[in-house]
Design goal:
The radius of gyration is 46 Å and the shape is rod-shaped. It is of the alpha+beta class and about 525 residues long. The chain is about 60% helix and about 15% strand.
C-alpha cells in the first residue's frame, strides 16, 4: 500500500518548481495559522475537546508539512489530493462536533481549492472541487440534521468551490503563459548576450567598459592584451589609471564634460602601441559608466596600406603588358637607330640613354607587378649554397659586377623551405641593393648563411661596405615607394612581403661598417 501511494505521488503531476514550492508553503502556513486560531477559540467551549484535539493535530500536521515540504519528490497532483483529503477530514470532524452551520467552517477550503485550480489548470481541479462538495453533502445528509436548508447551504458552498477552482485555473493558465513568455524572452536575451559577447571578443578593436569611479567593469581580450596582459585586467576593481595614465586622463575629461572632440592617439604606458580611443556613455542620463573603443593606429594604417597596394597590384597587372609592348618597340627602334648611326658618337649616346631609361621603366613595371604575388608561392626545399652561387653568377653579368665583389660563406647542406621564385627575388633585391651602395671592391658584398637550431631557421646576412643606412630613415626603408637613392622604393618592401609570405622575416641588423640586412627563412625538414 505504501509503495502504491509513493508511486502515485511520483507519477501524478509535475515536480515542484520554485513558484509551486512557495505557494505550497503559503498554503501550509495558512492551514497552520487557521488550526491554531481554531484551537485557541475552541478551548473551554462545550464542544471544545474534540474540536481542540482535531485543531491541534491539524496544526501539527500543517507545521510538519511546512518543514518537510522541501524533501517531497513526487507530483503536485497527488500531493494536493492527499492534502485535500486531510483538510476534509478536519473540516468534517469540527463541523460535526461544533453543530454550527456548514458555512462556518466549509468556507475555509475556498482559498485551498482556488490554489488547486492554479496548480492543476485542468478539469482535474473541478474533480477536487467535486470531491469536497460530495463530502460536505454526505456529511450533512448522514451525520447532521439533513434538512433541506442545510443541504442547500452545502450545495451553495460546493458551487463556490467550483467557481474558485475555475478562477484559479484561469489565473494559473495566465501565469503559465506569462512564464512561457518570460522563459522565451530570457532565452532570447541569453542568446543575444552570448552573441554580443562573441562579437565583442572577436573584434579587432579593444573594448572597455569603465565604471563611474574609473574601475574597469569589462574588457575584451584585445583591450586586455594592449593594456598590460590578462592578469592586469582580471583583478577585481582594477583602476584604469593603473593600466594607462594617458587613457585615464582622457576618460576623466570625457566623463566630466562628455567631450568627444579629442580623438588624438595616445601611447600605452609601455610605449609599444599607439591607440586611438573613442568614448561614449553607457547611460547618458544616469552617467553610470563609459564605453571605450580602442583602435590600433599602426594596424589601421597598415590595413589601409594593404588595401592601397592590393588595388595597385590589380591595376599594375592589367596595364603591365600595355606598357611593355610600346617599351619593346621603343627599345627595338633605338637599337636599329644605333646600328645605322654607329659612327656618330652623339647619336650613340642618345640611343644608350634610351636603352637605360627603357630598362628602368621595365624594372619599375616589374617591381610594381610583383605587389600582387605575395600569396602565389609554391614552397619547396632549396639548397642554399648552390642557389646563392647561381644567383651571384647571374648578377655578376646583369649588374654588371665582378664576381670577386661577392663573398659567400654558407653552412654546408643548409636547405631552406621557400618558393624558389620568391627566394630568388628576395636575394636579387638584397644583393643588388648592397652592390649599389658598396665601394665596388673585392668582397664589398658579403653573404653569410647560418642555422638557428632553436628557431629552425636559416639566417642569411647580406653586408656591404658602403656608408650604411642613416639612423633617421632606418625605420622607413621597408615602406613601399620610399627610396633614398632614386630607385623605385619597392625592392626592400618586396623582400619583406615575400619573406612574410614564406613564413620568414627580414630586418636591418647592426653592423660596424656599411649596412647589414638579415633574412630569416624556415629550414626544410628532412623526410
Amino acid at each position: 500500500m505504501v509503495d502504491w501511494i509513493a508511486r502515485f505521488f511520483r507519477e501524478t503531476g509535475d515536480a515542484l518548481s520554485a513558484t509551486s514550492f512557495r505557494l505550497l508553503r503559503l498554503l501550509a502556513l495558512y492551514r497552520c495559522v487557521a488550526a491554531i486560531a481554531l484551537a485557541i477559540a475552541s478551548a473551554g467551549t462545550q464542544y471544545g475537546s474534540v474540536t481542540y484535539a482535531a485543531a491541534a493535530a491539524y496544526a501539527v500536521w500543517s507545521l510538519l508539512s511546512v518543514l518537510t515540504l522541501r524533501q517531497f519528490k513526487g507530483g503536485i497532483s497527488g500531493l494536493l489530493l492527499a492534502q485535500l483529503a486531510i483538510d476534509l477530514v478536519f473540516i468534517i470532524v469540527i463541523y460535526v462536533d461544533s453543530q454550527s452551520a456548514i458555512t462556518t467552517y466549509a468556507t475555509y477550503l475556498y482559498p485551498i481549492l482556488a490554489a488547486h485550480g492554479w496548480f492543476l489548470r485542468s478539469r482535474l481541479a473541478f474533480g477536487h472541487a467535486a470531491v469536497a462538495t460530495v463530502a460536505l453533502l454526505l456529511t450533512e445528509l448522514f451525520l447532521r440534521s439533513g434538512t433541506i436548508q442545510a443541504i442547500t447551504q452545502a450545495a451553495l458552498v460546493g458551487i463556490g468551490y467550483f467557481l474558485l477552482a475555475a478562477i484559479g485555473m484561469l489565473l494559473g493558465r495566465s501565469a503559465e503563459e506569462t512564464e512561457q513568455k518570460v522563459v522565451l524572452r530570457t532565452a532570447d536575451v541569453r542568446r543575444l548576450a552570448h552573441i554580443n559577447q562573441v562579437v565583442i571578443n572577436e573584434l579587432e578593436d579593444g573594448v572597455l567598459v569603465v565604471g563611474a569611479t574609473g574601475q574597469i567593469v569589462m574588457a575584451n581580450p584585445q583591450a586586455t592584451r594592449w593594456l598590460g596582459g590578462d592578469e592586469a585586467l582580471m583583478r577585481p576593481n582594477t583602476s584604469l589609471r593603473e593600466l594607462s595614465t594617458d587613457l585615464h586622463k582622457r576618460w576623466q575629461a570625457f566623463f566630466a564634460g562628455q567631450n568627444t572632440v579629442d580623438m588624438s592617439p595616445i601611447r600605452t604606458d609601455g610605449g609599444s602601441r599607439l591607440l586611438s580611443p573613442r568614448m561614449m556613455p553607457v547611460d547618458l542620463e544616469a552617467r553610470a559608466g563609459t564605453l571605450i573603443f580602442l583602435e590600433d593606429v599602426e594596424q589601421t594604417e597598415a590595413q589601409a596600406q594593404q588595401i592601397k597596394l592590393a588595388a595597385l597590384g590589380r591595376l599594375s597587372a592589367s596595364i603591365a603588358h600595355e606598357i611593355r609592348n610600346p617599351l619593346s618597340a621603343i627599345k627595338q627602334a633605338a637599337q636599329l637607330i644605333g646600328e645605322e648611326t654607329a659612327e656618330l658618337p652623339q647619336t650613340h649616346a642618345l640611343t644608350t640613354m634610351i636603352d637605360k631609361n627603357v630598362a628602368r621603366i621595365d624594372r619599375i613595371v616589374r617591381d610594381v607587378s610583383l605587389l600582387g604575388r605575395r600569396d602565389r608561392g609554391a614552397p619547396s626545399a632549396i639548397d642554399l649554397a648552390s642557389a646563392l652561387a647561381e644567383w651571384v653568377d647571374d648578377l655578376s653579368v646583369t649588374l654588371p659586377a665582378p664576381k670577386s665583389s661577392f663573398r659567400i660563406t654558407c653552412a654546408a647542406q643548409t636547405r631552406v623551405y621557400s618558393d624558389r621564385g620568391h627566394f630568388e627575388e628576395m636575394m636579387v633585391n638584397l644583393l643588388s641593393n648592397a652592390w649599389r651602395h658598396s665601394q665596388k671592391k673585392t668582397s664589398s658584398v658579403s653573404i653569410t648563411a647560418n642555422v638557428d637550431p632553436e628557431k629552425q631557421r636559416a639566417v642569411i646576412s647580406v653586408i656591404d661596405d658602403g656608408p650604411g643606412v642613416p639612423t633617421e630613415i632606418s625605420d622607413r626603408i621597408f615602406e613601399p615607394f620610399y627610396s633614398g637613392s632614386g630607385s623605385t622604393g619597392l625592392g626592400l618592401y618586396l623582400v619583406r612581403e615575400l619573406a612574410l609570405a614564406n613564413g620568414g622575416s627580414v630586418r636591418l641588423g647592426a653592423s660596424r661598417v656599411g649596412a647589414r640586412f638579415v633574412l630569416e627563412l624556415p629550414l626544410a625538414q628532412d623526410v
